[in-house]
Automatic annotation (TrEMBL):
Classification lineage: Bacteria, Bacillati, Actinomycetota, Actinomycetes, Micromonosporales
PROSITE patterns for the chain: COX2, COX2_CUA, PROKAR_LIPOPROTEIN
EC assignment: 7.1.1.9
Family: Belongs to the cytochrome c oxidase subunit 2 family.
Transmembrane segments: 12-30, 62-86, 107-126
SUPFAM superfamilies: Cupredoxins (SSF49503), Cytochrome c oxidase subunit II-like, transmembrane region (SSF81464)
Signal peptide: none
Protein name per Swiss-Prot or TrEMBL: Cytochrome c oxidase subunit 2
Gene: coxB
InterPro entries xrefs: CcO_II (IPR045187), CcO_II-like_C (IPR002429), Copper_CuA (IPR001505), Cupredoxin (IPR008972), Cyt_c_oxidase_su2 (IPR014222), Cyt_c_oxidase_su2_TM_dom (IPR011759), Cyt_c_oxidase_su2_TM_sf (IPR036257)
Organism this protein belongs to: Paractinoplanes durhamensis
């Protein structure tokens, strides 16, 4: 019995070492691929895309790397579980050798999770610090004003409450507001609400920021690096028409943005300014979403009111 047990132990060690080498080999294989490539190959592991800002790219990379690390640990643990199930399955009535404790193993499964959590915390703190970082001289300041149940975007000539609004866009029940911004520039957002808590959310930016009423302002910066048009929403339940709080982010080149802002400063409407940079017809309005058909807009509502008034 003792000889058999001693003979089994080297084989067990070899198999465990083999599983460890397999996991290490998988890690080396994945490290040779780009994070973005691995993410695309597996559907971004639940995220909508890699994002449209430099900050979003870092959050995306952190997410994909964390999932890959979790999968490697999971595969290793699953391998050990199935190996134990098969290797130590019941083969008779004889009781196997009982081991009260295994100090190296206990140290291993205590220290390893601590190291994993420490590494994840380290990289999370770095990315979070970078995402929250504010520059001393942003290229453009936008004041986001939320109210039941629409958005106002004010282009400012400086930071803080003492700055002046040089151009503004306000949404309505009939027209989705457009937030036009340039690529490659540091955009500073200063958020405020006129009533309750709302939330500024563009899914392709991979994060949202709450908009608080009162003097407290949520301030953050992004640097957009991909032109396009992206839907924006309120992500905080704020009342009856919460679902109607939509807007569209329009990311253009710096030259087109300068022309747009010049047109707005000259008194042009948002649609006229959009036409000045090449967005004409329907493209001068939101293309990623449209106003919801409210009861105030529906003909059936008007007809029922007319009938009720006649009665």
């Amino acid at each position: 019995m003792g000889a058999k047990s001693q003979a089994a132990r080297p084989r067990a060690g070899v198999r465990i070492a083999g599983l460890g080498l397999g996991a290490a080999g998988l890690l080396m294989l994945l490290s040779g691929c780009s994070i973005e490539g691995v993410g695309k190959a597996f559907g971004n592991f639940g995220w909508p895309s890699r994002g449209v800002s430099l900050q979003a790219h870092k959050m995306y990379d952190l997410w994909i790397a964390s999932v890959i690390a979790a999968l490697i640990v999971g595969v290793f643990v699953w391998g050990l579980i199935f190996w134990c199930v098969i290797r130590y399955r019941k083969r008779g009535d004889e009781l196997p050798v009982q081991t009260r404790f295994n100090m190296p193993m206990e140290v291993l499964y205590t220290v390893t999770p601590i190291l994993i959590v420490a590494v994840l915390f380290y990289y999370t703190a770095i990315v979070q610090t970078d995402v929250d970082k504010l520059s001393k001289n942003p290229d453009q300041v936008v004041q986001v004003v939320a109210f039941k149940w629409q958005w106002e975007f004010d282009y400012r000539d400086g930071m803080g409450k003492d700055a002046n609004t040089v151009a503004s866009t306000v949404g309505s029940a009939d027209v989705i507001p457009l937030l036009v911004l340039p690529t490659g520039k540091k955009i500073r957002f200063e958020e405020t609400s006129k009533d309750v808590i709302h939330s500024f959310w563009v899914p392709e930016m991979l994060f949202k920021r709450d908009v608080f009423p009162g003097s407290a302002r949520n301030v953050f910066e992004v640097t957009l690096d991909k032109e396009g048009r992206y839907v924006g929403r309120c992500a905080e339940l704020c009342g009856t028409y919460h679902a109607f709080m939509q807007f569209e982010l329009v990311v253009v080149s710096p030259d087109r943005f300068d022309k747009y802002l010049t047109a707005k400063k000259g008194g042009a409407t948002t649609q006229e300014a959009m036409a000045a940079i090449g967005f004409t017809g329907k493209e001068a309005y939101a293309v990623t979403t449209e106003p919801l058909n409210t009861r105030r807009q529906a003909s059936s509502w008007n007809q029922s009111n007319t009938v009720a008034a006649g009665k």
